[in-house]
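Lecture 7 notes: from sequence to structure.
We start with the chain below.
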Amino acid sequence: MSTDSRRPLSAWRFDGTLRAYQRAALDRVDVDAGKPLHLVAPPGAGKTLLGLLLAARRGRRTVVFAPTTAIRAQWVGAARVLANDDAAVSDDPDRPADLTALTYQAISVVDSSEPFAALAHARWVDELIADDRTPDQAEEWLEALSQSNAAAYGRGIRSRSRALRRTLARQDAAALTAALHPRSRELLERLVEAGVETIVLDECHHLLDHWALVVAALVARSRAVGREPLVIGLTATLPSPEDANEYENYVSLLGEVDLEVPVPAVVREGDLAPYRDLVHVVEPTGEERAFLSAHAEALAEALRTTFAVGAGRDFLRAVLQPPAPSAPADPLEPPVEGVSAPAPAPVDPAGRSAVDGAEIEPPPPAVESSDPDAAVDAALSAAFAVDFAGAEAAAAMFSVVAPDDPLAARLPAVARRAPTTEETLRLLGRYALDRVLPDPARADDWRRLRRLLADFGFALTDRGVRRTRDPIDTVLASSLSKDRGACDILARERTELGDRLRALVVTDYVTHGNVHGGLLGSAGAVRTFSIVATDAVTSALRAILVTSSTVRVAVRHADTLLPALTRELGVPVTGEPCPDDVAVLEVRGTTGSGVVGAVSRLLADGSLEVVVGTRGLFGEGWDCPAVNTLVDLTAVATASATQQLRGRTLRRDPSWPEKVAHNWTVSALLPPDSPLDAQPDAARLRRKHAGLWGLDADHPDRIVRGLPAALGHERRRALDEVLEKAPGASLERVDALTSVPPRNETRSAWRIGSPYDDREELSAVVERPARTPVFSTSVTAERALGGWLGVSAGAPAALIALSFFLPPVAGVAVGGASALTGAVVAVPLFSAWRRTRRQARDAAATLRNMAHVVWTALSESGRVRSPLAVAMWEGERRDADATRAEIRMAHASLADQRTFAIALEELCGPIRAPRFVLEVDRGGGPWWVRGVLERAGRSRSRQFVAVPFEIGRRRADALRFHGAWQVHVGPAVLHELNGPENLSLLAEARRTGGFSGAARSMMRWS
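Predicted C-alpha cells for the same chain:
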C-alpha cells in the first residue's frame, strides 16, 4: 500500500486472525466503488475491527461517530493498536488526527430557526390523508384552520418543522448546513479542512434521530470541495421499515445492506455464546388490578359523555346522515402499478356480477318507497360506503347515547352495541378536528378534551387522538410483580448455575414516578434493587445498583463490596444509610464513568453476582463477557434496542468456555377474569421478540425468528386463550419459569462449528383441530350434493330403461333426451360434489389448493414477482387434538414470501374488517347447484373466510380470486362489505369466519 500524505491509514496493520465473516466482508466490499457501505452484525461480532480495516484499506483520513463515550473509547483503543502510534488517533473535535473518534452528540446541535414551513404543510396534509381524508379534504381543512384559528395552524407548522429535521438527509448542502447551530458548523468545517474522506457510523441505527442531518451535511460539504467521501455504516440491527420517514432517512445515507451477519451465524461459528430466550409471566398485584378497573370505567364514562348531548350528538348524526354526494366514487380502488383499471363487470340475468365465472352476492335490492324513512336509509348507506369503519363506530356510539332517537331505530341491529375503546377514540379524534379545533370560540373545549385524554394516557393533537402511555400500559409495564418475578428468575438461575451466576437486571428508569395518576408509587431500578436486596430468595446474592446518578449495595454485603469497589476505583468509597430503604446503603465516592468498569471487573472475578441498572447505561456499549443471565424489565420493544440489550450476554466468557446465556423477558398480564380487554404487555412481548433469532422452543434443531423461539406451541396457545378470555385459560400455562431446558441441551442444539447455508425463509403456518374438515360446512354440503347427484343420475337412468318399452322412435327420443339432460345436470353436480368431498375428507389437499389460489391471485395482481417460486408443504401432527401445516414459497424473494405468508394468515385467521369475504360451500355455478347448496345451508351455520387485503384492494382481483377458488378449492359466494345492510353479515362472518386462530408467519434460518 502507498503511504503518501493522502493515504495516512494505509500503513496500519492487523496481525491477528480474522473471523470467517470478517474475511468475507473484506473480500466482498469495495471501498472505492463510490457508494456507501452498510454492514449489519450482532454485538460481539467484531464490527469495530471490521470498520477500522475497511478505513485502513481506503487509506484516507477518517472520522468515526459513536453513540456513547464508552464506545468512542473502544474505537480509540482499537485504532491505536493498528496504528502503532497514539498521535495518529484523536478523540478531540478541535484537534483532528488521521482517525478522529467522536460521539454523535459532539456536532449534533441543531439551530432553532424554522425555515421549513412549506415542507411542514405538506407533511400535515399527508398525516390527514393517513387519517382517512382525501387530499382535497385535507387541503380544505388546513385552509379553513389557517383562516379560523391562525394560532393553532401556526403551532402545527412549527411542530412539524422541528420534526422535519429528522428527514433532511435528502436536502442540498446549503439547506442542511443552514439548519445547524453555528458551533456544529464550525466543527463540521474543521473536519472538512482536515481532509476527512471516510466517515464511519457506529451503531448507525441512531441515525433515526437528527444526527443524520449532521452526517448528511458533512457528506455534502466534503463533496462540495471536490472529495468523494465514503460512508461506512455499522449496526447490530436495522431500524424497522414501519417507521417509514425515519427509515427512508436512514437508507438515503447508507443505501441497502451490503452484508448482514445474522446472530445464528456468529454463534454457529463459535464467536458468540449460545443462548436461549425465555419468558416469565406475572400477574399484577391486587392493588394494581383494582386501580386499572376503576380507570377503565372512568374512561368509558368520560368518552360517552362527550357524545351524549349537544355538539357531540350532532356530530354523530352528521356522520351517519351525510349530504348526498355530487358524484359516485369508489374510494377503495387505488391504482396499482402495472395493473390496468378494471372494466365494469358484466352482469348475468340474475343480477350477479361475473368475471371468469366469479360472482358477487348482492345485498338485498333497494326498492322505491314513499316511506319518509327512505331518505334516512339512503344517507346511512352513503355513510357506510364512504367510511365503513367510521360509520360502524358512530352507529354503535349513537345507539348507546341516544337509544330513543328515531335514527337509532333505523340502524342495523348488529350496530346497536357498545362501541369499543378504539372506535370511541376514532370518533373523538375526528370530532375534535372537525368541530372543535377550527372554531376559535371553542378553544376552551379543545383544552378540556386534551386534559381529559391526557389523564387517561392519550394525546389529542392536530392529527387526531394518539395513544401514549396510558395508565393500563404504565401500570403493567412497571408492575411491582415484575420486580418479584425478577427475584424468581434469579433464584432459579442461582440454583442451576451456583457460583457461576452473573446476572444483569435492566429497567427503563432510575425512578419512575406517578404520571397522570397512572402509577401506584414509584418504580424503576431503585425499587427493583430494593426488592432484590430484601426478597427472601435473592437477598443472599451479592448485588449492586448502578445508574448514572446512584450506586447502592445491600447492608448485609457492604463489608465485602465497599472494599472491593475501593480497590477497583483506586479511591475510597463509603456507604451511607438511605432514607427510603433501611436495608441498602448509598455508595459515596463513585462519581464518574469508572464505576461501570469497576463493576464489570467485579462481576468477572465473582465478587458480584447481580447488577441492577438502566437501559441507558447498560443497554448498549457495555462489555462484560462474564454476564450469562439477562432479566429484561424494560418497556422498550424496538428491534434495535431489544437486540442491543440481548447482546450484553452473548460475548464469550474466557473463564467459562461452555457458557450458555439465558435472556429473560418478564411480562405482566391481566388474568382472564379481569374486566379489562387491554393487554399491552402481551403486544409488547410479541414486538420484543419479532426480530430475535433463537432455537425453536418446540423443535430445537430449527432456528426461527419471533415468539416461537421463546414460547412453544402450547404456551402460545395458552397466551391466546388468556387474551380471548377463553374458559379454563390461565397465566400459569403461559409461564416458562418451571420448564427451562438444561443449558447443556441448549449448547448442543446450536451445533457450534457445523456448516450452514446462511439462508432465511419465511413460511406460513396454519394450526387447526385434527380429524376435522377445514370448513365445518363441507360435510353437509357433500351429503346434499351427493344425494342430488344420485337423483340426477338415477332419474335419467330410469327414463332410459323405460325408453326400451316405448316405440323405437319415441324410445330413442326419450332415451337421448334423458341422457343429455342427466349429463347436463349431473356434471356440474359431480364437479361440486368432488370438490366438497375433498374439503370434507382431505384437509391437507384443501390447504395446498388454497395456498395455490392465493399465490396465483397475488401474482396476477402484481403483488408478487417471483416467477420461479415453488410451493413447499410440511405437515405435522401436534397431538391428538391439533395439526400444523407449514407452507413456504421456495425460490421466491423474501419480500414475496412475506406478502404470501401475510395473505394466507389473513385468509385462514379470524375475520376483522376485510372488504370482501368468501362464504364457502355456497354458490357453485348453475342454478341447480346453487339451489342444492342453499337448501343444505339452511340447517347449519354459515362459514366465511376473508379475502386477503392485497387481493381485495381491487374488485377485479377479488373476482378473479373467487373464480379460481371455485375451480381449485370448492363452491363459494363472494360478498362485498360496503353498506349498512352488510353489518349483520360482517358480524356473522366474525363469529364463524376463519378456521385457524393460530395462523401466523414464521422466519427460519439455516
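Points to note: The radius of gyration is 33 Å. Residues 6 and 574 are 53 Å apart (CA to CA).
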